[in-house]
Amino acid sequence: MYCDCGYGMVTVFLTHSKKDMQIVRQVYVDLRAKGLHVWFDESDLSPGDYSWRRTIAAAIREADCVVALFSPNALLSTWVQKELDYAEGHEKRIIPVMIAGTERDSLPFGYIGAQFIDLRTPERYSSGLQQLVKAAYGITHWYESPTLHKPLNLSLPLPPPRERVAPQPLSVTRPSKTTQDMRRITIPTKRSKWRRWWEWILRQPADTAR
Asked: Which superfamily does CATH assign the domain made up of 11-136 to?
C-alpha cells in the first residue's frame, strides 16, 4: 500500500515486548492502514527461521525509522534494548512511543526527557497515531537518537512583512521670485516690429535741407 501524500513508501520497524501484543497488533494494523510498510516479527518472521537474528538485523538496516513501543515490559526486555542499540549504531531515526506505564518505569536510559508520542489511553490514541504517522513520514522533527546528536531546528521565524507605502503625488508649486527674476535676465525678450521700426527712425540723421 502506498501513501497518497507524496512521500512514497516508508518502512517502519516495530520494536516491542511480546507481553504487549494486544496494543502492538493494534498499532501495526493502524500504521498499515495509513500506507506505511511495517516490519512486525509476528507477521514478517517465519517460524523455524534459524537465521532470525540476521533477518531482524537486515530489517533494521533497511527500515526508514524504528518505532519503539515503550512500556514496563519493554523496559525489562533484553531484545528491545539490543534492537535499539543496533538501530542507534546504524544511525536510524528512532520514534519513542509510550503505550503503558510512566516515564520512570517505561523509558530506558537515554530516553527520559525525550519527546515521545502518547498512546496510553483511548482518548489520546487517535491524536497520537496521527503524530506517529507524520513522524514516520518525516513531516515533523524528532530525535535521530536520544544518545546521538539532536537535529538542528531550521524552522526560523520569518521576518515581518514590510509595509507598502503608497507613492506621494508631486506637489505643483509656483516658482519663487528669485527664479522668475533669473528667467527675465537669461531669457531675452522679443521686440515687436513697431518697436524696431521706431528705433530705426530715431537712428536716422536729421534732414537739414528742409
From this structure: Toll/interleukin-1 receptor homology (TIR) domain (3.40.50.10140)
Domain ranges of the chain: 11-136
Closest to 38 (Cα-Cα) out of 77, 11, 61: 11
Distance CA 34, CA 141 (A): 19
Q: Are 66 and 96 in contact (CB under 8 A)?
A: no
pLDDT tens digit sequence for 8-54? 578 999 999 999 999 999 999 999 999 999 998 887 766 666 678 88
Average pLDDT over residues 177-193: 55
